[in-house]
Amino acid sequence: MTAASLPNAQAPSVTFVVIAYNESLGIVNCLNSVLAQRGGYSYKVIVVDDGSTDGTGDLVRRTFGERVDVITQENLGRGAARMTGLKAVKTELVAMVDSDIILPADWLQRCTEYMGPASAVGGIADPDGDCSTIQRIFALTSKLKQGSTAITGNNSLFITEHLLSLGASWMTPLGEDFRLTQLLFARGRIVKTVPGLVVRHVEHKTYLQSLKWLYKSGEDATKLLFEFRIFRKPDLVFLSFLFLLVAASAGVSTFGVLVFIPLLVFLGLIGFAHLYSKFEFSTRKFEFLMGVIPNSILMAAYLLGRTIGLLQSLFSLLSRPERVAKNRELTP
Q: With respect to CATH, is domain 3-204 assigned 3.90.550.10?
């Protein structure tokens, strides 16, 4: 029996906020892993059903009853769902978990023991979110490496007060983990990855859903560059893609579609390099190579999203003086 299910347990010291959108296939396993946390901790579990249309919220109520509180809202995105859950938290610590994550039984114990002076700690998701579909299709073996941020939104433990102090600027449909990390850094807070703490990421996206998700992630990644002015490795890849795209577009009228060959080769190399950074090549070479083309298409969707995000950001910058002038005219 877990601390969460003890009839006379003390007031919860930790609240798990699990966000879910159409996660009926995986949320029961996720919540079972949350409720199986050992170490004698007392905790509460809240599920935020972000406008699911597959009965996710009802499934949780039927399966777990009073052991899990369910908050239902219209579909507002990941950041808004996390904020809805956060507003209901009354404990010193809050754990943010996605409903496609399965935690090891010692997750909470290891996070609290490692926290020390940090404001947030978390584990490493296996596989990483941007390649989970390819991993599932081709059964590739992950390289367990820390992601691009010290914590990821899918499994992190925060000091509630420090998280609330950030306001709502991180409350975005995508990229909220990077925003949270940078905002905490800006306030002098410590954010750490717990060494060797691995959580299972069991995603159920179709390939087409992954295409859409990576396109949207690309849009947001370009906005992050403008928002925080932090240049990362994916930004270098994007600039290289943009150069090849502009060069090919400029030369197509003279040389025809052959000018797009370097761009296609580049996408193939990026697809291979991305897979190689995430998965072992030696264990399943044939399956790995089979995954390069579909992964290259996913990377193309991401880079296209980045291109659209760049146009949107430039348009916003160019129109800002005009908006300011209009606001001044309307001000009495």
A: yes
